[in-house]
Design brief:
- The protein is mainly alpha-helical.
- The strands form two sheets. A three-stranded mixed sheet has the order 1-3-4, covered by helices on one side. Strands 2-5 form a two-stranded parallel sheet.
């Protein structure tokens, strides 16, 4: 009986603290400065850890860690320029070397597959997840890491689970009450200026980030590769359906700060439960959100061109790499149309060069 009473007192004290220091201030739009103070302490701690690693790690390791742009240097010049130094006119056997080089580059490090793995970090953020294994860890750094594990799993995790439980409960109660109301303008939220919000996709919580600033009607797909998450470094092809209806597009760029936690969901490696556990035991989820000026389809512009224009604007604003590939390539093979396009480009180049005699005719 004493154990049950003690557990009840701990639970009531915990809920009182959560209610008094988090829920009530948030409900009234009041900030107690706890989050700001936590972030300052966290930034100082991570900066100290980075300095300790740089001082103790070998120079070769530091140089290796700083190479975050890829393991090979690509030549992004077009096919005509790439073949100009190898060929004379018409078909040349030396053209094979250009395509072999491109094939080897794709095997070693293609542009698509690396976007579906966690973003490389320049330095360790004291989390268990890191793509680079730091061989040097000082006793002080190890002690800080152990303390961080205790804080993340014994304080932050229970706190976030409690907030999630309370939030979901309020959502269920609120939607149940609203469902009992008669049809009226009070029941349905209709923005005066409708439109479609389009953003790059890194995490399932992208939609939660956006709903903190407004109310959206969510649209999803039934089939498997719907809304493939990209690892916070790039933006891939948008489906053209949203750009065909002729409405106003509201571009939004979202960029997460990997220093405090990895928001990317690698669905091929982690299920939803494992992903949520990793999210709730991270230091924090920090991101920048840019609401960009509305965009409309220009005269003579088809849906694909409009989608690519919006994608370019989001990539520039968020500091992301713009890629022409479909995120569905994570689970599907490359379409034959992509292969045929390269073949057509090469054949057009051959025909365009032609022999001097054919040109004179």
């Amino acid at each position: 009986m004493e154990g049950a009473e003690l557990a009840g007192k701990i639970l009531s004290t915990w809920l009182t603290l959560v209610l008094g220091f988090i829920l009530l201030p948030s409900a009234f739009g009041v900030s107690l400065g706890i989050s700001e103070m936590y972030m300052k302490i966290l930034v100082k701690t991570l900066e100290w850890a980075t300095i300790r690693i740089e001082k103790g790690a070998p120079k070769e390791s530091v140089l290796k860690n700083s190479a975050s742009l890829g393991i090979i240097q690509r030549d992004e010049s077009p096919m005509e320029k790439g073949l100009s130094g190898l060929r004379g006119r018409d078909f040349e056997l030396s053209d094979v070397f250009y395509f072999s080089k491109k094939g080897l580059e794709a095997i070693v490090e293609d542009e698509v597959t690396q976007r579906f793995s966690s973003e490389e970090l320049v330095s360790w953020n004291l989390l268990t997840r890191t793509n680079v294994n730091f061989h040097y860890v000082s006793p002080r750094l190890t002690l800080v890491w152990v303390l961080g594990v205790v804080v993340r799993y014994c304080v932050l995790l229970p706190l976030r689970v409690t907030l999630a439980f309370i939030g979901i409960s309020l959502l269920v109660i609120g939607t149940t009450l609203v469902g009992q109301l008669p049809d009226s303008s009070f029941r349905q939220y209709r923005p005066q200026k409708g439109g479609i919000c389009v953003a790059n996709h890194t995490s399932p919580i992208d939609v939660l980030i956006l709903t903190t600033d407004g109310c959206y009607a969510m649209v999803g797909q039934v089939h498997g590769p719907a809304g493939t998450c990209i690892n916070n470094t790039s933006v891939m092809m948008f489906k053209k359906g949203s750009f065909e209806i002729g409405g106003t597009i509201h571009p939004v760029a979202i960029k997460y700060n990997p220093q405090f936690g990895d928001a990317f969901w690698n669905s091929s490696k982690y299920n939803m439960v494992s992903y949520l556990l990793r999210m709730m035991t991270s230091w924090a989820i920090v991101c920048d959100v840019w609401y960009m000026p509305p965009m409309t389809r220009e005269k003579g512009e088809d849906a694909v061109q409009f989608a690519n224009r919006v994608k370019s604007a989001i990539a520039i604003q968020g500091g992301l790499t713009e890629l022409p590939w479909d995120g569905g390539l994570k689970r599907a093979k490359v379409k034959d149309a992509f292969k045929e396009e390269q073949q057509k480009n090469y054949s057009k180049m051959i025909v365009g060069n032609g022999s001097p005699s054919s040109k004179s005719d």
